[in-house]
Each structure stands twice: as C-alpha cells, then as structure tokens.
Amino acid sequence: GLCSTYFDNQITISRSLSKEDQTKETKLAIEKRQCIFGGYFQSSNFSSYIECLVPSPESNSWELYDFRPVSSNKLDIIRSLYFQKKLLESLDIPIIDTKPIRINASYIFDKSPIDRDEYLIVESVTDRLTKESLRFENEWDLFLNYLQNPIFPIHEDTHHTCRSPKSCYSKDVCFKEISDYEIFDLREGQELTKKFYLNGIKTFSEMPE
User: Alpha-carbon dihedral of residues 199, 201, 206, 207, nearest 10 degrees?
Assistant: First the structure.
C-alpha cells in the first residue's frame, strides 16, 4: 500500500506459510537486513507479528513502524508498540526508533494521485514510550501475574484490559454473564464502548443517533 512506498529492499513474510517457515524467513531477512513486512517473531514464551521492521541506516539497530488508519496516536497504539519493542529487544534486535504512520485528518483530496507526504504523518513516539514505560511495565507485570494465576480475581477500572470482554484476561470471571456483544467491536470506542455496555446497549443498531 501507500505506506510501503517509504521503504526499499522489502520482503513480505507470507502468512500462508507455517509458523516455523515464517520464523525462518523472518530470521533470514534479519540477517540480510531487509525491510520486513509482517515478520513473525517468537521468544520462549511470547510471539507476535510485526507490521514493519526497517534496518537503521546509521547503526546496526532497527526502526519499528506500525501503520494505523487513525488520525492520532492513542494510548493503545503506544502500548502495542511498547510491547512489540520489548519482544524484539528480548530477541537481541535493538530498536533505535519507533514510528507509527497515521492519517492526516486535515488532508483534502483534490486530485489524483494522493499526495503521500501530505496524507500520511510519520512521527517518532520513542520519547512517549519512555514517558509511559512505568505504566506499561506495571501492566506487563499484571499480565505475567495472570499467566501464573489464571483465576485472576480482580476487576479494576484502571486496568485497560477490564474495559471489554475482548481484552479481558479472564472474561469467564469478569464478564461471565455476556458473550462478545457487537458493541465491543466499535473501533477506538474505549471508554465510550464501556459506557454503552453499562447502559444496556449491546449492538450497533441500539446506539443513539
């Protein structure tokens, strides 16, 4: 797509491959220092697809990119990138910079082709990752505690995972009376989604105008 035009020497790891073959292809691309789309990275305990990993031209480090069809870098995006970076660095892949690519909401399309540099915003969030690191490390500890104790008998509004059964670590405990209602599919709903649910709104058709 449009975002990929920023990068040269690209390779896309096909998800039609087995996880084992995806891992091999990703490792080979790392060795060749290619720009990797859809790489599959796995540690002893965790794994993740990484949207885009680009070799830094100035060092042996890498730059982590993520493409988002949104106009702002919300906390959930920063959180996701933080944990992607954490996984990569646990595999001895140093990340020198982290950059979401998002949409410029003020862009006006007046003629073809789309002006990429006006339509898209590439912005480093490395400083913000550092600023939020304590919060994210606390959430990481919370997640690790869950792995050790799946009963997880706490429900706190301060935990972002408690806002929806889709992110809940133990929805059979905290959301045992419901299934995955459609309202929780609302993109970037966050607090609004939870408010709808608590007010008895469970489908898009029930949402107010």
Answer: 70
For the record, the structure tokens of 51 come out as 């949207």
pLDDT computed for residue 141 by the predictor: 84
| Low-confidence spans in the chain with pLDDT less than 50 | none
Measured distance CA(143)–CA(152) in Å, rounded: 10
Looking at the DSSP bridge assignments, the partners of residue 101 are 67, 122
Residues in the chain: 209
Please check whether residue 5 is in contact with residue 116, taking contact to mean a CB–CB distance below 8 angstroms: yes
| Phi then psi dihedrals of residue 161, to 5 deg | -70, -15
The pair of structure tokens assigned to 65 is 């990119």
- Which among 25, 33, 27 is positioned nearest to 54, based on CA atoms? 33
Q: What is the pLDDT of residues 63-95, one digit of tens each?
A: 999 999 888 888 889 999 999 999 999 999 999
What is the spatial distance between Cα 161 and Cα 78, in angstroms, rounded to a whole number? 15
CB atoms within 10 A of CB 123: 12
Tell me the torsion sign for CA atoms 132, 135, 141, 147.
negative
Stated as kind and residue range, the H or E segment containing 66 is: strand 62-67
List the structure tokens of 136: 């994210």
